[in-house]
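Hello forum,

I keep getting stuck at the same step: I have a sequence, I want structure tokens, and every attempt I make locally crashes halfway through. Rather than fight my setup again tonight, could one of you with a working pipeline run this one for me? It's a single chain of 221 residues.
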Amino acid sequence: MKKPKKPLPQPVKSAPSLLRTVRLTAWVAVLAVAFVAGVMWMSNLLNRDLSGTGGARPAAIGIGGAFTLTDTNGKRVSEADLAGRPTVLFFGYTFCPDVCPTTLTEATQWLTALGKDADKLRVVFVSVDPGRDTPETLKTYLTAFDPRIQGWSGTEAEIAQLKTAYRVFVRKVERPGGEYLIDHTATVYLLDASGTFAGTIAYGEATDTAMAKLKRLIGGA
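Reply #2:
Ran it on my machine without issues. Output:
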């Protein structure tokens, strides 16, 4: 009867090799935690509730900058046109199937609910589709909403500059037949009377919360 073979000894990591593995694992864990914390911090800063108590507003985090566009009457506009009164700023396009008409409808309802205070706000819809949204197209589209909502558009280069300045996400999604949709930032930006970033209204946010933020924005002007 044959004797069973003894199992071969398994290699054992040397102390230096084991230490390197532990250090690498620890660094990966630290970087992962830092990344998650950074994402959560940015998300919290962008969506902090202006209706909360304490009177604190989000600090500007590099959102904003120089740009030049054209309004629906053919007038050239720039970042200087965001000064003087608080602004509700939203990015989208006229072929948008859901997010844009929904938000513009909500903006119309906000202005109605604010009554006379609505005139203290500037509401601007900026097109991120320079290939299709001319000033004339934008003007016709906005007739379905509150007439106080302004429409701004521009060339490819002008929109690219604005996207960078305001950290707007835009991605073209090709469709069959040469058509396309655009994935874009759905968040409404709130700017104070100096044109400085002051907070946001999230897409689909509760009406009472959104109204509280707008009233606070107006009150701080």
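The two ends are 96 Å apart (CA to CA). If your local run keeps crashing, start a new thread with the error log.
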